[in-house]
Automatic annotation (TrEMBL):
HAMAP family: UPF0434. This is UPF0434 protein E4Q08_07235. Belongs to the UPF0434 family. Pfam families: Trm112p. It comes from Candidatus Accumulibacter contiguus. InterPro entries: Trm112-like.
C-alpha cells in the first residue's frame, strides 16, 4: 500500500483518518467501527463493502 495514498485517504462516512492493517489487507475507521477491504492493492471505500468491527476492534 502506497504511503502517500494512506496519508490522503479518509473514511468516506465520517472523514476520520484510517488505520492500515497489512495482515488483514484492510483500512480501519475506529469512529465508525468499519473495516474497508483492500483488493489487489486498491482500497474499496464503499460503505456496503465494509465489514462492521466487533466491540473489541476485530
Amino acid at each position: 500500500m502506497d504511503a502517500r495514498l494512506l496519508d490522503i485517504l479518509v473514511c468516506p462516512i465520517c472523514k476520520a483518518n484510517l488505520e492500515y492493517r497489512k495482515a488483514q489487507s484492510e483500512l480501519l475507521c475506529k469512529p465508525c467501527r468499519l473495516a474497508f477491504p483492500i483488493r489487489d492493492g486498491i482500497p474499496i471505500m464503499l460503505e456496503e463493502e465494509a465489514r462492521q468491527l466487533l466491540s473489541d476492534g476485530t
